[in-house]
Automatic annotation (TrEMBL):
<comment type="similarity">
    <text>Belongs to the acetyltransferase family. AANAT subfamily.</text>
</comment>
<protein>
    <recommendedName>
        <fullName>aralkylamine N-acetyltransferase</fullName>
        <ecNumber>2.3.1.87</ecNumber>
    </recommendedName>
</protein>
<dbReference type="GO" id="GO:0004059">
    <property type="term" value="F:aralkylamine N-acetyltransferase activity"/>
</dbReference>
<dbReference type="InterPro" id="IPR016181">
    <property type="entry name" value="Acyl_CoA_acyltransferase"/>
</dbReference>
<keyword id="KW-0012">Acyltransferase</keyword>
<keyword id="KW-0808">Transferase</keyword>
<comment type="pathway">
    <text>Aromatic compound metabolism; melatonin biosynthesis; melatonin from serotonin: step 1/2.</text>
</comment>
Length: 256
């Protein structure tokens, strides 16, 4: 009798458990909720350029390690605006917008680069009166030239994902990854053999890794001293930013 009673209790317990499971499924408890993406990734329009450049002074320059470490993040200068506008007018940039309000929440500024561009950056730097700004542009010239991408991949023009930012209240929501992914795919659609991203901060670095881009060159900040006779590192970025890691995507190449 004890055996029959035990079987009866066991059957009852299993039946109750199945009933609970069935109820949970019927009520939707067992189903994963799909979170709707509240952002749209779109090509930047000419009428949006002014808004993008204004947002860069709030959400890009103050947080960009190479700019902020030299005290240039909150110090307005027209050169940054001129460079941003030059990139924007190429027509390759993207914005992220809230699909409910239409507000721009971030942007990826893209442009093309040719083998002579590093020399032009050096020449531009020599005309700058601000010492820190001049050193920064010499550093940018060095970074652009160092991996020799044009020679390595036999091309005269590459697609650069130059600057990316997201407003602070929308960070850690995947917006930056969406912008970079859309940009690199667009670069490939335009026929560019080499898509480049210089990850100057830790977070962009991790996104490039997630996008399975290839890290091809690295410049630790502590290794670049510029023209300083005392060999003091120019960029003293805060943790966790330790250097520039240069990534490429090679959509049509056997070098993958």
């Amino acid at each position: 009798m004890r055996f029959l009673f035990f079987k009866s209790k066991l059957f009852s317990s299993v039946l109750q458990q199945k009933t609970k499971t069935c109820n949970r499924t019927l009520l939707g408890w067992g189903q994963k909720k799909t979170v709707e993406n509240p952002f749209l990734i779109l090509r930047a329009q000419r009428q949006e350029y002014g808004c993008i450049m204004e947002m860069m002074w709030r959400f890009y320059y103050p947080d960009e390690p190479t700019v902020a470490s030299l005290g240039l993040g909150h110090k307005y200068n027209p050169i940054f605006d001129e460079e941003a506008l030059r990139c924007l007018t190429e027509g390759y940039s993207f914005v992220a917008k809230c699909k409910y309000t239409g507000d721009i929440v971030g942007a990826c500024i893209n442009n093309t680069a040719c083998p002579w561009d590093p020399d032009q950056l050096d020449q531009m730097a020599k005309t700058m009166k601000d010492v820190n700004l001049r050193q920064l542009y010499h550093f940018y010239s060095y970074v652009q030239r160092a991996p020799l991408l044009w020679q390595q991949f036999g091309t005269t023009k590459i697609f650069e994902m130059n600057m990316v930012f997201v407003r602070r209240e929308d960070r850690k929501r995947g917006v930056c990854k969406l912008l970079l992914d859309a940009s690199r795919k667009f670069g490939a659609d335009c026929g560019y053999n080499v898509i480049r991203c210089d990850a100057t901060n830790f977070y962009t670095d991790k996104i490039c890794e997630k996008l399975k881009m290839k890290m091809i060159y690295s410049i630790p900040y502590c290794s670049y001293t510029g023209l300083d006779p005392a060999h003091t590192p120019l960029i003293k970025a805060p943790h966790p930013h330790t250097g520039v890691r240069i990534y490429v995507d090679l959509p049509f190449s056997q070098h993958k």
